[in-house]
Amino acid sequence: DGGITQSPKYLFRKEGQNVTLSCEQNLNHDAMYWYRQDPGQGLRLIYYSQIVNDFQKGDIAEGYSVSREKKESFPLTVTSAQKNPTAFYLCASSPAGGSGNEQYFGPGTRLTVT
Amino acid sequence: AQKVTQAQTEISVVEKEDVTLDCVYETRDTTYYLFWYKQPPSGELVFLIRRNSFDEQNEISGRYSWNFQKSTSSFNFTITASQVVDSAVYFCALSASHTGGFKTIFGAGTRLFVKA
Predict the structure, then answer these.
(1) Phi and psi at residue A62, in whole multiples of 5°?
(2) End-to-end alpha-carbon separation of chain A, Å?
(3) Engineering a disulfide at B89: which of A91, A92, B39, B80 sits with its beta carbon 3.0 to 4.6 angstroms away?
(4) Residue B31: Cβ-neighbour burial (10 angstroms; 0-12, 13-18, 19+)
């Protein structure tokens, strides 16, 4: 089955530690995205990538980093510089980065930092 | 600036009632796309519909229907004869060419509770 995989579903870390969230897609999509969702709020874009080896900052990129070494993979690292990292993180992909394409989402990773 | 407003934070209905979720958007672009997504308790957003700015025709898909009105910058979503399985958070989203085409702006979402 084609889709997006995010692992793990729940992640717990101590403050000051970097943590990497996994996102894999087998839809052969060019574009991939990372969003952050906080309670009662919409999705906010962290980073996006239109093509392998290229990515751009979204609206809230500070304290996060990404890589896009393979088409199917777009891992997100939450660094210790992120002041409020506890949130629900959603990865998405679309066939291309054009504005007319819907996005396909993974099941999300809920990160808790204490 | 691009903006999506979903003024209804939460809506609660009884099963079989009809319910309309409001979405108002702002954009200066003439070419743009509007979307609705559903987020069930599992957390994964599911795409429901896409509309481009040149197509104001309303759409119906089973119990779901969408009313797109450029004159009022609205893209409202109606569920007819709601069911418990419709309980979820629904997001309206806007994607416009001005943004480079690679960023989609989401509203804050409307949480729908359908009680049996």
Answers:
(1) -60, 130
(2) 36
(3) B39
(4) middle
Residue range A86-107, pLDDT digits in tens? 999 999 999 876 667 899 999 9
Tokens of B28: 């200066």
Q: What CA–CA distance (Å, rounded) separates A93 from A23?
A: 10
A20 close to A73: Cβ distance less than 8 angstroms: no
Asked if A99 and B95 come within 8 Å (Cβ–Cβ), the reply is yes
According to DSSP, residue A72 is labeled T
Q: Which residues of A30-49 are buried (b: 16+ CB within 10 A; e: fewer)?
A: bbbbbbbbeeeebbbbbbbb
Nearest Cα to A92, choosing from B102, B89, B88?
Answer: B102
Could you tell me the two tokens for B46? 């599911």
**Residues of A whose CB is below 8 A from B95:** 99-100
Residue B21 has which token pair?
């979720």
Kindly give the confidence (pLDDT) of every residue in chain B, 116 residues in length, as a single tens digit, with 9 standing for 90 and above: 789 999 999 999 999 999 999 999 999 888 899 999 999 998 999 999 999 999 888 888 899 999 999 999 999 999 999 999 999 999 999 998 655 555 789 999 999 999 99
Closest CA to A93 of A112, A106, A82: A106
